[in-house]
Design goal:
mainly alpha; Arc Repressor Mutant, subunit A; elongated
Length: 114
């Protein structure tokens, strides 16, 4: 008896109105999940870090990422370019410099990526 190939559900990735890839029906971005995985976080750790995510969705997103790495990396690179441009535009405003300084002074150093 031959086993039938499993039918895989599509990855739970949606593009919101702003063009940002998000996981499932949450506000968690694809960037966040993939960067945590790339930093060495386990899938269960990622699901714990973002409690609105379903564990199965994290598995599906990582599986999709590993199978479509070039496509995901291209999206992540474009996303980073957009974030950098937005940050440069925001930082060019004079009144943001003091706010930025204050926020950076409050930022706690991250011990681990997970």
């Amino acid at each position: 008896m031959a086993l039938a190939a499993p039918v895989l559900a599509p990855a739970p990735i949606r593009i919101d109105a702003g063009g940002v890839a998000r996981v499932g029906s949450t506000r968690v971005t694809l960037d966040s999940v993939v960067s945590a995985f790339d930093a060495g976080c386990g899938i269960e750790e990622i699901a714990g870090k973002y409690p609105t995510l379903h564990l199965a969705d994290v598995y599906a997103v990582i599986t999709y990422t590993l199978q479509n790495r070039e496509e995901v990396d291209a999206y992540l690179q474009l996303s980073q370019i957009k974030r950098d441009a937005s940050r440069q535009e925001w930082e060019s405003l004079a009144h943001t410099q003091e706010l930025r300084r204050r926020l950076l002074s409050l930022k706690a150093p991250a011990d681990t990526p997970c």
